[in-house]
Amino acid sequence: MIVRPGCAIFLAATMPELPEVETVVRGLRASLPGRTILDVRLGKSDFVDDPSALGDCLPGTRISDVTRLGKFICIVLESLEKSLGPESISAPRLNLIIHLGMTGQLTVRPASDPVAPHTHCFFALDDGRELRYTDIRRFGRMLIVPESRMAEFLGHLGKEPLQIGPDEFCRDLGSRRARIKALLLDQRVLRGIGNIYADESLFRSRIHPAQIAENLGKKQLLALRRAVREILTAAIRLRGSSISDYVDANGKRGEFQQRHRVYQRTGKSCFRCRGKIRRVIVAGRSSHFCPRCQPAPRSREK
DNA sequence: CTTACGGCCTGGGTGC
DNA sequence: TGCACCCAGGCCGTAA
Q: Whole domain around residue A65: which residue ranges?
């Protein structure tokens, strides 16, 4: 892929989870703040909570920051309307919140660039570039949340996996009777972990995905928290996992897929014990694990 | 209240 | 060559 100057590309192809979204956000944060949105154009809009609000509210706002909330991208927008009084009445701040779903991509490129198929949303910027949203399957989501309602929005989300402390982690997960894999995937418990990093974290901490969280010992819970932190940190450093054609701002693929120990390695041998990696359905999701390194629950409990 | 599960959304890839 | 089917993550409704 050829990447021309001024043609910044931040996209995540298959299954963007916390590390992929973080990589995209870092790219956007280096490129978007300071830019003003001039215009919004929409193609298919069934993934937008309130399509007409995009055109009504966004043109004329200035991007001040780009942050990540779990798997959500948050583009912070300041109104440019001049304050009426000498002391600026707090300008209404809006947050453009984007979830990439499974196939969502955000790109920033010259408006004259060819448009990729399945591009459904165009934000024209004041420097001749466009922020574009492309999503083959439209499992993504886009919504505007005023600053006054951000607390409510965040109320639906759990804690950041890289910020939660050991005591909180043990309390929030260890008190639950659900299977641990289901809890790791539950965005109301922890925000940002998806199937890849749940499986990799469970393998690293040697916990079977179907283990009941409540039955885990404190040492196991602490090991799991550490594994989650180490896996996510390493994945961010390697700019995420590229399953197909994910590339970062410099056109580079993520590299963490080369570190996968169990995810999509069904039938292959475990790097740790040479046993065969298995795949089972837990919490309705494919779960990859090593039966020898991650002993099944209550198979041999007292 | 908590947990489990099935179905729905969509379309690329797969296998027949 | 065509085409039925599988699967992915989040969400919702329903059941236990």
A: 18-154
